[in-house]
Specification:
alpha+beta, seven-stranded antiparallel beta sheet, six-stranded antiparallel beta sheet, 15 strands, disordered N terminus
Length: about 300
C-alpha cells in the first residue's frame, strides 16, 4: 500500500511539472506572437513610407498623375489598415489571456473522468483473508470495485466519491429508500478517502462486497447472527463503527455515487445498481449477480415514485 501511494505521488509530481512547462510554453508562444506582430508593424511602416524609386520618380516628373505606392501588390493605406488591425487583435488577445487565461486553459486542459463497473477482474475479485480472530479462520468475500479513468490532460486533484442514500428493490418492482444518511466517502484501494487521479492510469474505488462474515445490521452497532446466505455489504461505514459496513442482505439495491475533485467544473453523479440473490460469495454467476451503471436521469426516474 505504501509503495502504491509513493508511486501515485511521484506520478502526480511529474504531471505537475509537465503542466507548469505547458503553461510556460503557452506564455512564450503568446509573447513571440506579440513580438512578431510588433516587428511586422515596424517593418511595414518603414517600407510603405519609403519614397518612390528613382525610376518611378523620373517617370512621374513628366506625368501629373502619380500611381499609389504599393508593397507586394498592396497599397500603402491597405498595409497600414492590416497592420493596425493585427496589432489591435494581438493587444485584445493578450488582454483576454491575462484575464481569462486560467479559465481558457482549464477548458482545453482538464480532467475527463469516466466510470466503469463489471463482474470480472480487475473490476471484481474473490478474496480469501484471515478474519482477524485468534482462531485465524479464513473469510471469503467477493469484492466489487468502481474503475475511475482520467482520459484528460490534467490530474484530478483531491478526487473523492461519496453516497448518501441506499435504495432497495421491491419484489413487485420499483424501489424504496432503505437508508438515508449524511454523505459518506468510499475508500480507494489505497485506503485513502482522497487521491489525485492522474491521466491514463486506472484507479479503483472499493464499492461493495459479498461476504460470509457476520456484519452489523443496517445503521446499528450490533453484530448480526451468521446467516446461511452470504450478504451484500455497501462499503460505507456505519455510524460510529469503523470497519463495519451497511448490510443490504440480498436482492437489488440502487445507490448514487457522486464523484468530484478540486478542479472539476461540476460533480459527476451516477447510480450503481447491484443485484445479488446467490447463497455463497465463492459461487458468483450471471444468474445470481449483476451490476450496472445508470445515469443520473435514469436513476432519478427509477426512484422518483418511491415512497
Amino acid at each position: 500500500m505504501l509503495n502504491l501511494r509513493n508511486t501515485h505521488n511521484l506520478i502526480s509530481n511529474r504531471l505537475l511539472d509537465k503542466e507548469s512547462n505547458m503553461t510556460l510554453r503557452s506564455a512564450l508562444i503568446v509573447t513571440c506572437l506579440v513580438l512578431t506582430v510588433l516587428c511586422l508593424n515596424v517593418i511595414g511602416d518603414a517600407q510603405v513610407s519609403n519614397p518612390m524609386p528613382p525610376a518611378a520618380a523620373i517617370g512621374a516628373a513628366g506625368n501629373a498623375s502619380t500611381a499609389p505606392v504599393k508593397l507586394i501588390g498592396v497599397e500603402r493605406e491597405s498595409w497600414n489598415t492590416i497592420f493596425n488591425a493585427v496589432t489591435a487583435l494581438g493587444t485584445i488577445a493578450v488582454s483576454l489571456l491575462a484575464i481569462f487565461g486560467q479559465r481558457i486553459r482549464s477548458f482545453f486542459i482538464r480532467p475527463r473522468l469516466s466510470l466503469t463497473v463489471g463482474r470480472n477482474p480487475p473490476l471484481a475479485d474473490t478474496r480469501h483473508e484471515a478474519d482477524g480472530t485468534q482462531s485465524g479462520n479464513i473469510r471469503n468475500s467477493f469484492r466489487i470495485y468502481l474503475k475511475v479513468y482520467n482520459s484528460g490532460l490534467e490530474t484530478a486533484r483531491n478526487c473523492i466519491a461519496h453516497s448518501d442514500q441506499i435504495w432497495k428493490g421491491r419484489a413487485g418492482g420499483g424501489f424504496y429508500q432503505m437508508k438515508s444518511f449524511v454523505p459518506r466517502p468510499f475508500l480507494w484501494t489505497s485506503g485513502a478517502q482522497k487521491i489525485d487521479v492522474v491521466p491514463k492510469l486506472p484507479t479503483f474505488l472499493s464499492l461493495a462486497e459479498i461476504t460470509e462474515s457476520p456484519q452489523p445490521s443496517m445503521g446499528t452497532t450490533e453484530i448480526a447472527p451468521a446467516s446461511a446466505t452470504d450478504c451484500l455489504f455497501v462499503l460505507l461505514e456505519t455510524e460510529g463503527v469503523q470497519g463495519r459496513f451497511f448490510c443490504a442482505e440480498t436482492g437489488k439495491i440502487l445507490m448514487p455515487v457522486v464523484l468530484y475533485a478540486d478542479n472539476l467544473s461540476s460533480p459527476m453523479k451516477w447510480f450503481v445498481e447491484v443485484y445479488w440473490t446467490g447463497s455463497a460469495c465463492t459461487d458468483v454467476k450471471d444468474a445470481n449477480f449483476t451490476i450496472r451503471l445508470i445515469t443520473e436521469e435514469q436513476g432519478a426516474k427509477l426512484i422518483g415514485g418511491a415512497a
